Amino acid sequence: MDNISPLLSVRHLSTEFVSPEGQVACALEDVSFDIYPGQTLGIVGESGCGKTTTMFSIMRLLPSTARITSGEVLYDGVDLLSLSERDMRHYRWKEMAIVFQSAMNALNPVLRVGDQIREAILQHGLMDNDQADQRVEELLELVGIGKSRKNQYPHQYSGGMRQRAMIAMSLACKPRILFADEPTTALDVMIQAQVLELLKRIQDEFGLSVVIVTHDLGVIAEVCDSVVVMYGGKVAEYGSIDAVYNHPQHPYTQRLLEAFPDLIHPGETLASIPGTPPRLNALPPGCRFEPRCHKRIDICARIGPKLIEISEPGEKPVKEPQHNLSPLSKEPSLFINPGHFAACHLLQKA
Questions:
Q1: Rounded to an integer, what distance in angstroms lies between the CA atom of residue 332 and that of residue 312?
Q2: Domains identified in the chain, total number
Q3: Which region holds residue 316: left if phi is over 0, alpha if psi is between -120 and 50, else beta?
Q4: Structural domain range at position 241
Q5: What are phi and psi of 162, to 5 degrees?
Q6: At a CB cut-off of 8 Å and minimum separation 6, what does 89 contact?
Q7: With left for phi above 0 and alpha for psi between -120 and 50, is residue 5 left, alpha or beta?
């Protein structure tokens, strides 16, 4: 299994926003990672770090004020960024689908839920009307919503049911990759657990690759195989859950984990990160995290560090864990262990 190729590869992706006055905000810079078949990848970081922009850039769903300035998004060898909008529509929903953040806002309030799912199927010409109706009922049953409720409107659903309906819609065209943007936001703890369990069950049943975008380190630890830690529009650290959570190399990752309650040592004082994330239209000249970093050195303020490889794919860390967010140690299969990467001057070899 160690020779399985990525299903989707993001390479050196950069995206910027331009205001009506012409002011440029660098939302993403040089972002790279892989998504493997059957893998669950987490993208985590503070609000404004570029998580959702990364997902929208991959699916080319950016607003008119945004533009991708460089990079590649390779899906089965095809660069999605080189396709026309018409050709790109083939990949949306049929190959890659998305569960948008805030299901109440993502669903059309004046259309029946079943009709909205049905429209996604008919737009891609996959079935006739009768087949589409049957598919809608199957999908609602799959996510735990009775088919008898397909003619109800979104406001007649609870928050958890609306999120399930969005998941059903994303599965309408049988995609291979499912993006979930903050899938547990605004849900209580019990419903969050049910939604995550549903995503896992669907992934196992259909062999999907799942990308979860969230600020919740607990969600990432529970369901993901690998994680991309982002800060200020750049990748700070990337690797398997075991490597990144138990052996964090970037100071930002270390502080994030130290700020999260540790189940192994519940009495320890939680750390905090002083200051605020950088403004994307006024980024520091060196490392994005330098103004807040507890380990900064002189070069950090002048030159941004490169993302370097710390360990090769499949290689296990040799040090004892520095932190254990979850009592369960994940052992990812070799083909979904991408190696361990971090962007910090302290890791540069002399």
A1: 14
A2: 1
A3: beta
A4: 8-95+175-347
A5: -65, -40
A6: none
A7: beta
Sheet holding 78-79, edge to edge: 24-35, 8-18, 66-75, 78-79
Within a domain: 298: yes
Instruction: Report pLDDT digits (tens) over 154-194.
Output: 999 998 899 999 999 999 999 999 999 988 877 788 888 89
Q: Say whether 194 sits in a helix, a strand or coil.
A: helix
pLDDT in tens, 189-239: 888 889 899 999 999 999 999 999 998 888 899 899 999 999 999 999 999
Give the integer Cα–Cα distance in Å for 67 and 60: 10
Q: Are 40 and 212 in contact (CB under 8 A)?
A: yes
Sheet with strand 209-214: strands edge to edge = 96-99, 177-181, 209-214, 40-44, 226-231, 234-240, 340-342, 308-311
* CATH code of the domain in which 302 resides: 3.40.50.300
Taking the C-alpha atoms of residue 17 and residue 85, their distance in angstroms, rounded to an integer, is: 19
Q: Checking phi first, is residue 275 left (phi over 0); if not, alpha (psi -120 to 50) or beta?
A: left
